[in-house]
Design brief:
Length: 720
């Protein structure tokens, strides 16, 4: 039953009626307010009726100090009885000539419900019997002060019982036994729950039982909404039929859509010790029919077990779809929690398994560059899936031990990353070596040392151009960076293209290739026993590279350099070295660090492009890298005696024989830059390296001849 009046309206009616009953034409109306919560309301009503208003600040006798000369309301914020319980009899004259009102906020609020006076009396008794009257008074004032709509009597009763909370079901679902009322109020709460449809709590007197039954009822309601047949539930747990008025949502869903305690409630409704409907769900035919319901640990366990069976049966597309569905649902309901994170990693596990299966079915290819570096279908996506899987860590360790993922996910992850991925790398290395030995494997490809010549028309057009040269930006990371820019700057056209980096794919050769000059002026040869890069016969050092760029009109900016002046130039070359430096420092968690760095690079590029309004920008890289699983044994092998220079991944000399370990590069490889007398033997086996002094890190390396190291993704960004 809704209220028919507000507190201000009832106060005005009470004063007006008292004036009409008074014997005096200009009466005094004395208002006793036990609790003193009606002052503003009484004062406003008095003013609207043309009455003077005087309030007793300390003692009622204060009102006697100034005799009224007009119609007046005297307000006393206390009970009419003194400390001994006797009625204060100081205002006999007012009783005879004016009027006396004894109305606290509880009484006045009850009068707001003219159509249900009997039930409304509970509001008065609730106020008078409250241990904390202020809380009850505040609830009454907020609901009936006239600033909002008129409340229902049930809603107001609920707020009084629950200290301001208006929904008894959602209060119990969210808070459990925390802050539940005691004794009589607990029984009032139980009755309110029953009135709202939770018949399962009828007759319960224990707080824990009331909470358990309410939660069980709410989970059942959501399961039914997701598709569970009601007949599988006991009658007292079946939700009431939908009236079809408005949008129906289960109570628990409504609560989780607005609470700020989502993470805490995930631990309640997905806690294995709180399996609300285990007997029903453990034998349910197809639990994925109910995957939209995120509030029962028994369902969560069934879903994971069924997903694992599908994975082991090789149904990877199904696994990707199901894991995506469950992850999106849990993340939407609870936010970032371990339960959502586990399903997110399940997507990566299924994606990687599908990519590896595709590779195994693919067979050999006549073009390893296209095989790996095709932007749409290349096997670089396998590396990306591995990268994402490793970055996502071990989310199952944050789950309760009873969750089945704690016993299965690590094994699935390890079998992919530490076994099948290594087999893929080994097969890919063999394929590259075979194609190099077959002759002319890179003819017709775009090579990094040709970049300035290939893009001469755009670079020399007079438009503003920015080069972002990112050290060790592997193909998949470049793609991730391109996707980030597409998302942030939708007004730009972002194009990805496959280029072949220099071999060996080391920083000094890769960066030397990305310097101005004719494609014919770049060369790599053996000088005094060392392999060196040259332009027009001059060795390219860091200083020489900077000079070449600056002489060609570029501002040269290194990472972390505070050079705002340089960015004002129409041609800027910006160098970011952080990825390579990170990978070379023996960091076991470098994938996670790389992920952070990609985000940082994206912010820098987007900021510069957005602020500088560049006509054209390029994201280039000198080389990629290979990242191996954390647990892998590397086989150190001896370099040939004829090698003049030895590194971990390649050896060089003028007289290397055809039997040198790895794939042998010479002028016959048609790379376009190796001197006639220079030979480079490059390893293609991912778990081999030459014995040589240097950093012992076995997870991150480059310089070899796997496509991850030399097949590069160059990103071109233009204004649409």
């Amino acid at each position: 039953m809704p209220a028919t009046k507000t507190l201000p309206q009832c106060a005005q009616d009470a004063i007006e009626s008292a004036i009409d009953r008074a014997a005096d034409d200009e009466p005094v109306v004395l208002w006793w307010d036990d609790g003193g919560y009606l002052r503003d309301i009484v004062q406003t009503a008095s003013t609207q009726l043309g009455c003077a208003f005087h309030a007793a600040e300390h003692s009622p006798l204060e009102l006697r100090t100034d005799a009224p000369r007009e119609r007046t309301v005297w307000y006393v914020p206390r009970s009419r009885k003194d400390d001994d319980g006797d009625v204060i009899d100081w205002f006999k004259d007012v009783e005879h000539t004016g009027a006396v009102l004894e109305q606290h906020i509880g009484k006045l609020a009850a009068q707001c419900f003219e159509n249900d006076r009997l039930q409304a009396a509970t509001i008065r008794t609730a106020y008078e019997g409250a241990e904390n009257r202020e809380t009850v008074a505040q609830a009454l004032y907020e609901e009936l002060n006239g600033e909002g709509g008129l409340p229902s009597l049930r809603g107001l009763q609920t707020k009084i019982v629950l200290d301001g909370h208006e929904d008894p079901i959602q209060f119990v679902l969210e808070h459990g036994t925390e802050n539940l009322p005691q004794k009589d109020k607990l029984l009032e709460l139980r009755d309110l729950l029953v009135e709202n449809g939770v018949t399962a709590v009828e007759g319960e007197t224990n707080a824990h039982a009331i909470v358990e039954e309410t939660r069980r009822w709410a989970v059942a309601e959501w399961l039914v909404d997701a598709g569970l047949e009601e007949s599988l539930l006991d009658e007292q747990y079946r939700p009431e039929p939908d009236t079809g008025i408005g949008i129906y949502r289960p109570e628990l869903q409504s609560l989780l859509s607005k609470t700020e305690r989502k993470t805490k409630l995930a631990a309640v409704y997905l806690d294995p010790s709180q399996r609300f409907w285990h007997d029903v769900l453990r034998t349910y035919d197809d639990p994925w029919d109910l995957a939209d319901c995120p509030v029962d640990a028994s369902l969560e366990a069934r879903l994971w077990d069924e997903w694992t069976r599908s994975f082991r049966a090789g149904e990877y597309e199904t696994c990707m779809t199901q894991a995506t569905q469950r992850h999106e649902r849990l993340e939407k309901i609870y936010g970032e929690t371990p339960w959502a994170a586990v399903w997110n990693q399940a997507i990566d596990v299924a994606t990687l398994a599908a990519e590896l299966e595709t590779w195994e079915e693919r067979g050999d290819s006549s073009d390893v560059v296209d095989l790996y570096g095709n932007v749409e279908t290349g096997t670089w996506q396998i590396d990306h899936a591995v990268f994402n899987l490793i970055v996502s860590g071990e989310p199952e360790t944050d789950l309760p031990e009873e969750h089945p993922a704690t016993a299965t996910l690590d094994g699935l992850r390890s079998s992919l990353v530490e076994s099948r991925y290594l087999e893929y790398l080994s097969d890919l290395g063999d394929l590259v070596a075979d194609q190099i030995e077959g002759g002319s494997p890179f003819v017709g490809e775009r090579h990094a040392h040709q970049f300035f010549a290939e893009e001469h028309e755009h670079i020399q057009s007079g438009q503003s151009v920015a080069l972002f040269i990112v050290d060790a930006l592997r193909f998949d990371l470049a793609h991730e960076l391109a996707e980030s820019i597409r998302h942030e700057l939708t007004g730009l056209e972002v194009e990805e293209n496959t280029w072949v980096g220099t071999l060996p794919s080391d920083t000094e050769f890769g960066k030397a290739a990305l310097t101005p000059g004719s494609k014919f002026s770049f060369s790599i040869g053996v000088r005094d026993g060392t392999l060196v890069p040259e332009r027009n016969g001059q060795e390219i050092t860091n200083h020489r590279r900077q000079a070449l760029l600056e002489n060609d009109g570029w501002s040269y900016i290194m990472q972390d350099a505070n050079d705002d002046v340089g960015w004002s130039s129409t041609r800027v070359a910006y160098y970011w070295n952080d990825i390579d430096e990170t990978g070379e420092k023996e960091l076991t968690d470098f994938e996670d660090l790389f992920s952070d760095r990609i985000d940082t690079i994206s912010r820098i590029i987007c900021e510069k492009l957005d602020k500088g309004e560049w006509d054209r920008a390029y994201i280039l890289s000198d080389h990629g890298f290979v990242s191996l699983p954390e647990h892998v044994d590397i086989d150190d092998i001896y370099p040939p005696d004829t090698a003049e220079q030895v590194t971990r991944r390649w050896v060089a000399g003028a007289n290397l024989g055809d039997d040198a370990p790895g794939a042998l590069l010479d002028s016959n490889a048609h790379l376009g830059y190796l001197d006639d007398d220079a030979k480079v033997s490059i390893l293609s086996d991912p778990i081999q390296r030459f014995r040589n002094q240097g950093l012992p890190d076995a997870r991150f390396y480059h310089g070899g001849v796997l496509p991850q190291e030399f097949v590069l993704n160059f990103v071109t960004i233009t204004q649409e």
